[in-house]
Amino acid sequence: MATKPKLKEQEEEAMLLQGQADILHYTYNFVESMALKCAVELGIADIINSQGQPLTVHQITEKIASPAADIDNLSRLMRFLVQKNLFEATTDTKSGDLLYGLTYSSKWLLRSEEQTLAPLVRLATLPSHVASWLCLSQCIKDGGSGFEKANGFSLYDERSGNQRSCFDEAMACISRIVMKAILSNYRDVFDGVGSIVDVGGGIGISVAEIVKSHPHIRGINFDLPDVVATAPTYPGVTHLGGDMFNVIPNGDVIFMKAILHNWSDEKCVTILKNCRRAIHERKGKIIIVDGVLQPDGDRKMDTVVQRYDLTMMAQTPSGKERTEAEWKKLLSEGGFGRHEIIKIPSFLALIEAYPE
Ligand SMILES: C[S@@+](CC[C@H](N)C(=O)[O-])C[C@H]1O[C@@H](n2cnc3c(N)ncnc32)[C@H](O)[C@@H]1O
Questions:
Q1: Fewer CB within 10 Å, N or C, the chain?
Q2: Residue of 117, 224, 272, 321 to mutate, ligand 1, most atoms within 8 A of C-beta
Q3: Is 171 in the pocket of ligand 1 (CB under 6 A)?
Q4: C-alpha distances in angstroms, 51 versus 92, 101, 102?
Q5: Into how many domains does the chain fold?
Q6: What pTM does this model have?
Q7: For residue 24, is it within any domain?
C-alpha cells in the first residue's frame, strides 16, 4: 500500500505545479499581445463604441465588413478577450445572446479618441518589432541591437522609412497620455519658465501640449532635421533640426521625454553636458520624463519599466532603464548635482535636475 506523502512533499508538489503553470503562462504570453493586435486591427472597440451600446458577435461581424468573416473565430477571440477583462460580456435577457461591451481597458483601444494606446499596440506588434525579440539571446551573447540583427536595419532607419507614421503616432499617443498626467497634476513645474526646448521631441506633441496649457512659454521642438521637416505646425512652437550629440539650442528649461533610456551612460553624459551648456548656470533646469526602475516599489508600474528595459535591449544598441541610484550617478557625471524624482500617475517618472 502506498504511503501518504508527507506534508513537505505535498507542499513541494503544489509549488512545482504552480511553477509548471507559470512556465506555460509565460510561454504563451504572446497570445495576449497577438489577440490585442487583432482587436486593434479589426477595430472592435471602435465598432462597439460607434454604436453606443454593447453588440452581439453578429453585429460586430457585420461592421468588420469582410465578405468571408468567420463568426465562430470572432466568438472565440471575444471569449478570450472577455476572460482578460479587455471586453465585457452580458446576456441579452430577451434573446439570450451575448452582448459585448467596453471595459476600462478597451476604452484605451479606441482609435477615435485622443487618449488612446491603439497606435502603441500597432507599433509593438509590427513584424519587425516582434522579430527583434527572437534575437534576445544574441543580444546577450554578442551585444548590439536585436532589431538590427533581425531586420538588417535600425529602429531609426525604420522610423525614417515606410513605418514612419506608425512610429510617430505611437510616440505621440504616449506623449498625449503622459503630458496630460503631468500638466494636470504638476503645473507648477513650468512656473516662471520663458522658453523650453524639447530635445528629441519627435513631431512636437509634448512641447505643443506644454505651450497649449502655458501660453506664455516659447516652445522649441528639437529633433533630427528629417524628423522636424515633416512635423505639423503648432501655435507657439518652433521646430529646429539638429544633433543633440553636437549642440542643443538654448532655453530656460530642457525637456527630454523617452530620450536617455535609448542610450548608453557614455552617450547620455554627452547629451547631458550639451544640455548644461544650453541652460542658465543658476536658473536653468532640465526635466526628464523616463522610466525609473523600482525593484522594491509599485510592482505593477515597475513591471512595465522592466519590460521596457528588455525592449531597449532588444531594439536599441545600448539603451536601458535605470534605477534611482543609476540616475543619480548619470546626472552628476553629466553636470547635474541636484535632482528630484517626482512620481506621476504613469509608468514614467518626472525627474527635475539642476546644474550644481
Ligand atoms: C523614442 S523617440 C522619443 C520622441 C519624443 N521625445 C516622445 O517621447 O514622443 C526618440 C527621439 O530622439 C530623436 N533623436 C535621435 N537621435 C537624435 C539626435 N542625434 N539629435 C536629436 N534628436 C535625436 C529621434 O528622432 C526620436 O524622435
A1: N
A2: 224
A3: yes
A4: 16, 10, 11
A5: 3
A6: 0.91
A7: no
Residue 55 is given by DSSP the state B
Which amino acid, 274? N
**Are the beta carbons of 290 and 349 closer than 8 angstroms?**
yes
Ligand 1: nearest atom to the Cα of 205: 9
pLDDT tens for each residue of 122-181: 999 999 999 999 999 999 999 999 999 999 999 988 877 777 789 989 999 999 999 999
> How far is the centre of ligand 1, averaged over its atoms, from the C-alpha of 231 (Å)?
13
Query: What cell does 20 get?
Result: 509548471
pLDDT tens for residues 295-324? Answer: 776 666 678 999 999 999 999 999 999 999
Q: Please give the residue range of the domain that contains residue 81.
A: 30-109
Q: Please tell me the distance between residue 68's alpha carbon and the centre of ligand 1 in angstroms.
A: 42
Does 58 participate in catalysis according to the annotation? no
Could you give the CA distance from residue 14 to residue 2 in angstroms, rounded to a whole number?
19
Q: How far apart are CA 256 and CA 275, in angstroms?
A: 10
Nearest-5° Cα angle at 242, 236 to 247: 100
